[in-house]
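Loading example: each entry is read as two labelled lines plus one structure line.
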Amino acid sequence: MTRNSSKINSKNVKVDVHYLTRVEGHGNIVVDVKEGKITKCEFQVIESPRFFESMLVGRSIWEAQHLTSRICGICACGHSLASIKAGEDALGIKPSDETILLRKLLLYAEQMDSHILHIYILVAPDLLGVKSILPLIKTHKPVIERALRMKTMGDYAGEVLAGRHIHPISYVIGGLTQLPAREGLEKLYKMMLEGRKDAKETVKLFKKLKFPEFQRPTQYMSLSSEDEYAMYEGDLVVNNKQKTKARDYKKLFTETMVDYSRAKIATINGRPYAVGALSRFNNNSDKLNKKAKQVAQELGLKAPCHNPYLNTVAQLIEWVHCLEESIKIMEKILKEGLDEKKIVVNSWPKRDEIGKIKYSPNTGVGCVEVPRGSLFHEYTIDETGHITQANCVIPTNQNIGNLEEDMRKIVPQLLAKKTQEEITLDLEMLARSYDPCISCATHILDVKFV
Amino acid sequence: MKKQPKPKLAFFDFTDCEGCQLQIANMGPALLELIELVDIVNFREIMSEDGQDYDIAFVEGSISTDNDVKRIKKIREKSKILVAFGACATIGGVNGIKNRTSLELAKNRVYGDKADNINTIKVMPLHEVVKVDYFINNCPPYIPEIITVLKCILMGKPYVVPNYAVCTECKANENVCRYEKDQECMGPLTRAGCNSWCINNGNRCYGCRGLVENPAVDAAKDILLKYGLKLEEVLQSFTLYNDPSGAKYDQEFK
């Protein structure tokens, strides 16, 4: 069957979802089918533009982390880390191994926090046939309490490690402004051990849920590393090929502005691609830890998986992976302690350092895997350490083109068997499965148009 | 006695990162208690129900497009109580930095030759467009303060945002002053209420709660200059979150 199958005749369907709900930010789904032919199939980003790349210009490189974490409330830690890495790359600063370990811990915590929000609060209502979690508070109270408990753990991790999860305080260029308190770390460790039970129950619940059937192989991009399931560092790969250094990301993909949206469409070799949990799983599932591999097996997810709805399942597998990795790191920290000298730095140069630091004009790139996929920050600084140019490439932007390709393939399949309302719900669920973060996506930047 | 119906609570977002709404999700057990006291009828980020009948509107984000202006006016008409929620809604927040450059330049930097498709106006906090009944400052909002304001709303009492400096709380927390550590800090100029959150965690104050009513600007300027900052950087510290009030310092600093 070809993409715009002509077999479905004289069928007219109009889907116009204004302000898609249970996603972060403002987006519309618009599909128009006339006599079985798709005339319009768009995911429109309509968030108010925010101009972060412009706001960064003229600001000190030391301020970039504080400012750019405000791009997104969900992945504030991810933005901070990408920003810190870009700043360090531009300044030639190398953080200690201890600092990197604490950064990974924060990144895992954010993956868990965001994934659980998506799994339980944004996606589960669709699978249980309700409009939000609120009716579930009455009918499924233990499930909601579990979801809140799992959410609280990720959030508490942010609080212990960085002062707070939304817009972290102590993670800065070069290290941390303060060591996490031992008391908090011990409490967090206990919560993590308890979290194993909740994970088990969640897996049980997921075995019962049915996701829509749909297959469309595409290009899956993520970081990849020989050493571990890559999140904090690694090289970019596409379906495990085309290995590219993260700082050369512009050689790998291209971003194009489209008229109907405030986000750009990204392509590799002229075709859209996907980023996020499913892409990471497809490229790196052999690097998952033992428990995560077990969960993948229990839930029947095998790489490569070509069903975008199962991104949510990949998120649950990653949740388990991140939990186990975090427990390992916590055990190391609690046993060996943290060396203040190797970790604690000032957020800004001190009074006597200002004027002595020699800055050379340079460009730095920072890339990390955040819950929704590969995130890039790139800053150019001048000889005073101020930013002259900034670029942030957001996972959701990279996914939009791929989501639209999915929509173009699935709509003809749905037309044959479903009503307009059912088609609308399926398309909403499809968009939601990518876990789009639209307020992030409007911070498009560098001014290269094709 | 007849049981009072629960007030209906709705959340709306404008130009921002939606972190304020997430702070509500991060309230943990207090969230379940809140649901006992109010009916949440509209919260797009977590629910598909689209309640248009509400008493209390929590609004986050700043006003930055023509459509935003129309939308906030409608929300004001429908709500009995309107709460400006978070730094973007109360003082403009980091979005205000956009006001430091011309709109044309900002548009061109980000959207290039497609800039004409983008509608954007001067960034404003809510109270520059509509009447606001309660202010919850901070980026992100401080959960104990959210709970205090919610209690005030439910009891029908006003809430006054502290008008003394963050230093008051910082001293009580026994932090070493950033200036003692040879670093600059916006604490002396910034409204308290956050329990000196950032300084407690080893960083400095960035002014996200907005400036106190009569900040000692001249003294602050002198001290910041003494600490090695350039005048332009002093102004940047003042305006990171505070463009609407910071703009008046443009003149004073020249």
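The mean pLDDT of chain B is 87.
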